[in-house]
Amino acid sequence: MKSYEVNFDGLVGPTHNYGGLSYGNVASQSNSQQSSNPKEAALQGLAKMKALMEMGFQQGVLAPQERPDVAALRRLGFSGTDAQVIERAAKEAMPLLVASCSASSMWVANAATVSPSADTADGRVHFTAANLNCKYHRSIEHPTTSRVLGAMFADQQHFAHHAALPAVAQFGDEGAANHTRFCREYGEAGVEFFVFGRSAFDTRYPAPQKYPARQTLEASQAVARLHGLRDEGVVYAQQNPAVIDQGVFHNDVIAVGNGEALFYHEDAFLDTEQMLAELQGKLARVGGKFQSICVPRSAVTVDDAVRSYLFNSQLLSRPDGSMLLIVPQECQANERVWNYLQGLTSSGGLIREVKVFDLKQSMQNGGGPACLRLRVALNETELAAVNPGVIMTAPLYGSLTAWVEKHYRDRLSENDLADPKLLLECRTALDELTQILKLGSVYPFQIN
Ligand code: SUG
């Protein structure tokens, strides 16, 4: 049976703004308080989805969330009508209003961890929504994420959904941004690679000194158990704490894998040799031939990687077995990175082509091409069981761009977040979106 990697991209929400909310994410911090352009952000994301669809890849779309999250503000003690809740939060605790307005659910690599049916004990595709416990503005995403994923992958014969892990730092889980799957064919059993930043309970693992390590070993292990993965099909590795302290807040900022290949920076991991040997051995057991492409620090520094997001690229398989790398335009702007990429594609190795995308609006908050997509490997039968409303087609692209043009502002600054009209605009837009994507009622304003 045929199988595919389907990329579900997060649609940028109407409140996209630069709140400076993510300590440890260099771009989020350095662009704090700049005004944003939500319309441009959403159109840039849609242009990438359309381009991949036109290249022949399976492409889907994941809906944004209701923002401002008035219910979250109510849980923090703000009361009255919705407009009064927003007004009071703006007056008394602006940082909380900013957090409740973040469009951060657009980075759907953090929405969930997904295990394809070929890896799981019950033969279903398993999803665990990420608790995103490290940052308040992201910790409020998972209930709606679960409802949206449930509406997209509703067929219980093929899809199993797990609630987010307990919302405490020991189980900090950032979803697929720290999870990679290696396999020969997408529909065959593979090796799931979980990268963690620290251990919550075992003091033998070192931790970063400056910035938080968002993903714990214990969270990754819990996800592997929930999904029913076999020990022979799982590899755990620790991220190098020194790179977390240089702004590598997720593994997908310093490594990307696809098929049998891992593309990574020399400084990405601790105990790299042992990890590579384990990946090679476990992939060989399921018939795969592991390949690694290491980018040396002499060619590209960790700082170059963080600024250019070279590794936050999409590594995609082409029909001839070679691979294509989708990179943000910031890679072209960095001479060392661009030279490296020119050498890489002309060397006759696995990665033959690089395609550049303008994702500046997302990049300014630390979100590159790979952050914007959640990969779901599906066989033909499972793909047919996905809600067809969320699969990208030319007409859907047309409807979504028209919807963005109609509802989105082209400028948003912090003061605008206190405007009660913004809430109304967002709800009107999202109500229409759930009809376009055939999701049913998934937002708090639709179900309460
Ligand atoms: O969690 N930025 C996101 C970026 C997530 C990128 N995802 C991956 N690497 N997979 C984060 O730090 C910034 C929001 C703000 O500051 O307004 C933010 O949440």
UniProtKB/TrEMBL annotation:
Catalytic-site annotation from UniProt: 174, 250, 371 (nucleophile)
InterPro entries: AstB_sf (IPR037031), SuccinylArg_d-Hdrlase_AstB (IPR007079)
A Pfam match: AstB
One term of GO molecular function: N-succinylarginine dihydrolase activity
Pathway: Amino-acid degradation; L-arginine degradation via AST pathway; L-glutamate and succinate from L-arginine: step 2/5
PANTHER family: N-SUCCINYLARGININE DIHYDROLASE
Reaction catalyzed: N(2)-succinyl-L-arginine + 2 H2O + 2 H(+) = N(2)-succinyl-L-ornithine + 2 NH4(+) + CO2
Subunit structure: Homodimer.
Documented EC number(s): 3.5.3.23
Regions that span the bilayer: none
Biological source species: Pseudomonas serboccidentalis
Protein name: N-succinylarginine dihydrolase
Family affiliation: Belongs to the succinylarginine dihydrolase family.
Function according to Swiss-Prot or TrEMBL: Catalyzes the hydrolysis of N(2)-succinylarginine into N(2)-succinylornithine, ammonia and CO(2).
Signal sequence annotation: none
Binding site for substrate: 19-28, 110, 137-138, 214, 252, 365
Keyword Hydrolase: yes
Keywords from the named record: Arginine metabolism, Hydrolase
